Amino acid sequence: MEEIIGITGLIDLISGGAFSRLSLFAMSISPYITASIVIQLLAMVIPALERLSKEEGEAGRAKLNKYTKILTIVLALIESLGIYLAYKKSGIFVDEGFLTAALFVVSLIGGTSILMWLGDQITDKGIGNGISVIIFVGILAGLPSSVRTIYNLVFGVATGFSTTGLITALAVIIGAIILIGAVVFVQEAERRVPVQYAKKVVGRKMYRWSKHSYTIKTCNGRSITNNFCIIIFNISSTNNTYV
What we know:
Elements: H1 6-14, H2 18-21, H3 30-45, H4 47-54, H5 57-90, H6 98-124, H7 130-141, H8 143-154, E1 155-156, E2 160-161, H9 163-188, E3 190-197, E4 200-202, E5 205-207, E6 210-217, H10 224-242
Antiparallel strand pairs: 1-2, 3-6, 4-5
Helix pairs in contact: 1-10, 3-4, 3-5, 4-5, 5-6, 6-7, 8-9
């Protein structure tokens, strides 16, 4: 299959290459990620959703999680239809009738639903954040092919050892290390604001002023901003590919 670029390449990376192989989990957990971003952004502007996230505690978060899953199914339906039309355009289907389209769409939605359920189980069992674990495993699944690509870049099958390929491979590895370090630095960065408390009297005792610091995370959006920017910047390249 031709090289996948743009937002489809992002989906293929998250799914561990399942998208390019057209497997049951081709969409991976990407519809859930998008739905989570949308719900959290809406919670900032819609008072009802904001109350659910801040005032109603565990019950409110459960409702938000329910809304996220409903939106995930809707987005999975739209995305699976888009994938079907893209593959249909390439002419890989023998029968392009309604039943083929329905089976294709339902299968992809079912695959995403299974991963969403599996992520909840991983979180409930206390192993870690289920969605993050699934994304991490998907990226690890595509790591061997990336290593093979870098190896072929340096030691080509036909050309043998390539100095240019070695320099390119080193640049890619160093760039990846710098990028990971920058992301960790921004994500973990915090600012300490000094706070002073004046003298106060409690009963017959007088307490002198004390000095503390209040820690503020400089990147409260966590990975939401990263994912949102990646999706926005890759939409244009995807449109150029399929339009």
